Amino acid sequence: MHKEITRLGSNQEVLLQTQEQILLANGRIASQTGVLQLRQQELLLMFPQLYGEMKTLGIKPRSVQTVSTTTFG
Predict the structure, then answer these.
(1) What does the pLDDT look like over 15-68, one tens digit per residue?
(2) Does residue 73 form part of some domain?
(3) How many domains, in total, are found in the chain?
(4) Are residues 29 and 47 located together in one domain of the fold?
(5) Residue 50: other Cβ atoms inside 10 A
(6) Residue 50 near residue 69, CB atoms below 8 Å
(7) From CA 29, how far away is CA 11, in angstroms rounded?
(8) Is 63 helix (H, G, I), strand (E, B) or coil?
(9) Residue 33: closest CA among 46, 19, 47
(10) Which of 14, 40, 53, 55 could form a disulfide with 34, with the two C-beta atoms 3.0–4.6 Å apart?
(11) CB neighbours of residue 11 within 10 Å
(12) Is 50 inside any structural domain?
């Protein structure tokens, strides 16, 4: 139970923080956020497209340890 409370507290902190801007080696500015720790069902509900892509690629969602997304604007 303690691990679950810690996980939820950490997720809440990440969701409430603002994006941090960093300077890349090529001189461009990028934004980054913290890391969410999600259970399989939470991943499905929050990111259904990403969940679907994993299934399409033949990746079993329960075996996934890390998921990262990158966008360029």
Answers:
(1) 898 888 888 899 988 888 888 888 888 888 988 998 889 889 999 888 888 887
(2) no
(3) 2
(4) no
(5) 14
(6) yes
(7) 25
(8) helix
(9) 19
(10) 14
(11) 16
(12) yes
DSSP state for residue 61 in the 8-state scheme: G
**Structural domain range at position 51:** 37-67
Same domain, 1 and 31: yes
> Would you call 12 helix, strand, or coil by DSSP?
helix
C-alpha to C-alpha distance for 26 and 20, rounded to whole angstroms: 18
Domain assignment present for 15: yes
Residues in the chain: 73
Using CB atoms within 10 Å of the CB of residue 67, give its burial: 0 to 12 exposed, 13 to 18 middle, 19+ buried: middle
What is the Cα–Cα distance from 28 to 11, expressed in whole angstroms? 28
Amino acid at site 24: L
Q: Which pair of structure tokens corresponds to residue 33?
A: 């956020």
Q: What is the pLDDT of residue 36?
A: 87
